[in-house]
Amino acid sequence: MSTYEARLSALREQLRKDRLDGFVVPLTDEHMSEYVGAYAQRLAWLTGFQGSAGSAVVLPQEAAIFVDGRYTLQVREQVDGNLWHYESVPQTSVAAWLGAHAADGGRIGYDPWLHTRAWVDQASAALAEKGATLVAVDTNPVDAIWPDRPEPSKAHLVVHDDIYAGRSAREKRQDIADWLTERKADSVVLSALDSIAWTFNIRGADVERTPVALAYALVHADATADLYVAPEKISDAVIQHLGNAVRVHDRADFADALMALAGKTVVADPERAVAAIFDTLDRGGAHVVALRDPAVLAKAIKNAAEIAGHRAAQARDGAALSRYLHWLSVEAPKGELTEMSAAERLHQFRQETGKLKDLSFDTISAFGPNGAIPHYRVEAATSLPIVAGSLYLVDSGGQYLDGTTDVTRTIAIGTPPPEMRNRFTLVLKGHIALANAVFPKGTRGGQIDVLARQYLWANGLDYAHGTGHGVGSFLSVHEGPQRIATFNGGDEPLRAGMILSNEPGYYKPGEYGIRIENLVLVEERAVPGAEQPMLGFETLTFAPIDRTLIDLSIMTAAERGWLDAYHASVLAVVGPQLDGAAKAWLESACAPL
Question: 41 phi and psi, to 5 degrees?
Fold first, then answer.
């Protein structure tokens, strides 16, 4: 199993033993998580792909890997094209590809704990046209051939204090109970890990960079709940925190608990609960209602304590990043830095705050051509030296008890040529346009995505990722349901209290990448003469934007005014936290245009 070719061959042999003519390997876990524990990294183990979103299909004579535009370059660098076809999403899909490539009458396997019921229905319909069938497996064949597959994490749960949460777990359970009563339902299944962490005010360390614990939960209309988690992960402090109204069970007992809900009306989320959950409820005789998990929207709309915590975390994180940018300005000209050493130093600056719990994702420390890979992940084998003549893109963030941060800055190393300055300024103009947006209550993220792209589009340019994602409170750095995107979502109405990223970019394959990212808070906005409630954004992130990359000739007076005001805010928030040479550098970096 030392090569990916051997692993692919072994899987095909296992499929032959299992009487399957193919198998689908998604990058997720039993909770439909974006980021997963090491035990669930089946796609990476099988193919070598290190991105955070993708799927693969293995057939007897061919195999394909499916990624979106963020990973077009990355997948070609990490996955052997002699073994795998590269397929682009949303131009195609796993279901459509199976419909075209599966053998007539074939049996295609899937793990029902790793797919939604909607996906199962879609794939089944595509296969049915060829007389092929989709077959649920009891044991994942990848697990059967993965000899050193890691065990799920045994890390303890910890209590997330109400000071940071803003509301008690009891209050949250009561809100869910009221929601169930309104819908004449008895119970709701919570399977999304961040929903469980938020609802019960607990956190964990089972998924790298995301403070969640592997668990399931049932919340009932009487405001009691059942939590399913490995017993060795529960401490006396957590038991005391949960109280008598929350019964704790072994995670292994969850499927049996679903079977025991016969005759009950049970809500399950069709996007976040896997097909196996729906199938088990159906077999057990429950009446299943497909509705969105009630914690999703409540979690997305931050309360006053969470907003205050975010502001504090952003101010602290902005100071760490500003210290780093000053350090970079001194060290980069020496030509001795690498992408990896730079990322390690940024981590140290965040650690020096004394408040960092973890990074919020693996730092994207990307120089030159690696910057053109939107979700590049630096490794020893790919780490480039940071030298004069191109751009350095650093996308990073921290997990703090009071908030989760995510910020991207693009820095000129040496004197940038006119093309780089032009592209950077077009991205900046889009960033400013979105930051300044004022829109009616009820506006969806997809309706304002164009604001960030308009200047790129006018020049025949674009970027292949969304403009904004939701962000949690000491939770997932990618949080739904809110998004700013023209594809893959973006249809959720934006509401006051939601936090999103504002991150337009531009990527020139093989040469450089640009992205400017701040986090923003949706807030109510008073507009003179307005005939309906209006919303806008408050920028939460504070770190200087590289002035040497700005082409002032294509900036309007209003755009210059926005940047000057933003830099004045950076100086006011971050400046008091710095001293000496770092503070002097910040004052220069934030000087009016």
Answer: -85, 55
The length of the chain is: 593
Give CA–CA dist 375/362, Å, rounded: 10
Quote the CA–CA distance of 338 and 109 in Å, as a whole number: 44
Task: Look up residue 388 and give its DSSP letter.
Answer: T
Residue with tokens 């019921």: 117
Tokens of 514: 């640009």
Q: What are the structure tokens assigned to 285, written together?
A: 């005789």
Q: Which CATH class is domain 158-299?
A: alpha beta
Residue among 512, 499, 548, 567 at smallest CA distance from 366: 512
CA angle 133, 134, 139 (to 5 degrees): 135
Note the CATH architecture for domain 4-145: 3-Layer(aba) Sandwich (3.40)
Contact 494/469 with Cβ under 8 angstroms?
no
Cα distance between residue 358 and residue 376, in whole Å:
19
How far lies 427's CA from each of 72, 545, 550, in Å?
A: 21, 12, 10
Fold category of 301-589 in CATH? Creatine Amidinohydrolase (3.90.230)
What secondary structure letter does DSSP report for 494?
A: P
Residue type, 277: I
- pLDDT tens-digit series, residues 486-514: 876 678 999 999 999 999 999 999 999 99
Domains 4-145 and 158-299 alike in fold: yes
pTM greater than 0.85 (yes/no): yes
Element (H, E) at 433: helix 418-435
Q: What is the pLDDT of residues 365-396, one digit of tens each?
A: 999 999 999 989 898 989 999 999 999 999 99
CA atoms within 13 A on the CB side of 356: 22
> CA geometry: angle at 129 spanning 127 and 134, to 5°?
20
Looking at the DSSP assignment, which residues form a beta bridge with residue 247? 226
> Tens digits of per-residue pLDDT, 171-221?
999 999 999 999 999 999 999 999 999 999 999 999 989 999 999 999 999
Rg (CA), the chain: 24
- Asked if 429 and 554 touch (Cβ cutoff 8 Å), the reply is yes
Specify the residue for token string 């939590």.
227
Q: Is 131 exposed, middle or buried (0-12, 13-18, 19+ CB in 10 A)?
A: exposed
